[in-house]
Predict the 3D structure of the following.
Amino acid sequence: MSGAIDVWCNFFTDEGIRIVFTENPEVSFMMGDQWGRHDLMVGYEPQEFVDRMDEHGVERVICPALKQYLYRDRELVSVPWQSVAQVIEKHPDRVSGLFGIDPHSGMKGVKELELAVTQYGFIGGHVHPFGFDTPINDARFYPFYAKCAELDVPVEFQTGHSAEFMPSKHGHPLLLDDVAIYFPELKLVGAHQAWPWIDTMIAMAWKHPNVYVAMSGHAPKYWDPKMVHFLNSRGQGKVMWGTDYPLIQHDESLSQIEALGLKPEAKEKLLRDTALKVFDFNRHR
């Protein structure tokens, strides 16, 4: 098997870590003060990070140009997609990008998404719905979904609860049901395994051919046993590896996956093959 593909790795440069983690009060509090991981909030030069990927057996990372609205502070956390594009241009075989969707940006945002995909090699959209106080099946997202369907690129969602101080209900995986029915040609990825609504996420991935799961945001040693059983059995080809780096480090995640005792074919699909099926990495070329 070739190297693993991380379908949610936060933008790892000094700029990306600063915007998403060190200057984001809620994430800094959650990840640093509560979870004791302040020391992981470190940015790297792109080549330095690629070298680290080589050390850990990671073939490619997919970085969201995150758009996260802070619900209580009413401030937008925004990773410039142009910054992600610059790293993609330097390392097209190792780094890919997802365009962060702001549901309030309207058709201006839709046009930017199209530009990022068609001209700068982005391979999908990304939705962090909680702080916008907007459920993932809200009409404000539909123009973006329609454009992604037209461009034949998937949309990745943070599903499940929000660890930040935001309304978790907007990421319930049952909401994917509406989107999957309305856009059967659009691949939908429910990231963070939709914890704690594991049964519902499994049901959506089993029911809809266009719905997949990403195991980001939780260390493998804490993955729900029901989801592990699903990805190791009837869910093979429906579940992908992700870390939410730097929250979960690549080496610790991969070593913990080895301890799960997965079937070889299930592990290969989890770490690489399913991502190759869902995402078109040739858009970089």
About this structure: Residues 106-120 form the longest helix (15 residues). Residues 9 and 70 are 20 Å apart (CA to CA). The chain has a mean pLDDT of 95.
